[in-house]
Amino acid sequence: MSVAKRYVLRLFISLKYVTANVVDRQSGRIVTTASTAERPLRDGLECGRACNAKAAAAVGEVLAMRLKVDGLAREPIYANAAKEVAKKGFKNQTKVWAILNALRSHGVNLHIDDDGDHRPHV
């Protein structure tokens, strides 16, 4: 197994919840996680909307803070944006990019494999 991509980001998006996990590929364990299913995060969202782009961005922010606490914010974390969008469907594209942009903006060393799509994602 390649040690180059040790930590990978996995996203789970349902009609009700957004969950983001960072997985250590060497041990096969989840290193840290954040989800709108968690009561403190869910209660902080407006109108109980736990699965929109704002909620996804909040999940990204919480995950970034937890990565910093665990000392993993400087470690390279890999995400395949095109694969995640293809798996989640085009209508969830804004949620995927909200999580990725929140992680980037909070100082996480995120490496995005986007299959040659080099447009700015806001």
From TrEMBL:
Top-level division of the source organism's lineage: Eukaryota
Entry keyword annotation includes Ribosomal protein: yes
Gene Ontology MF, one: structural constituent of ribosome
Keyword Protein biosynthesis belongs to the record: no
InterPro entries: Ribosomal_uL18_bac/plant/anim
GO annotation, biological process: translation
Keywords: Ribonucleoprotein, Ribosomal protein
GO cellular component terms given for this protein: ribonucleoprotein complex; ribosome
Family: Belongs to the universal ribosomal protein uL18 family.
Stated name of the protein: Ribosomal L18p/L5e family protein
Source organism: Miscanthus lutarioriparius
Lineage: Eukaryota, Viridiplantae, Streptophyta, Embryophyta, Tracheophyta
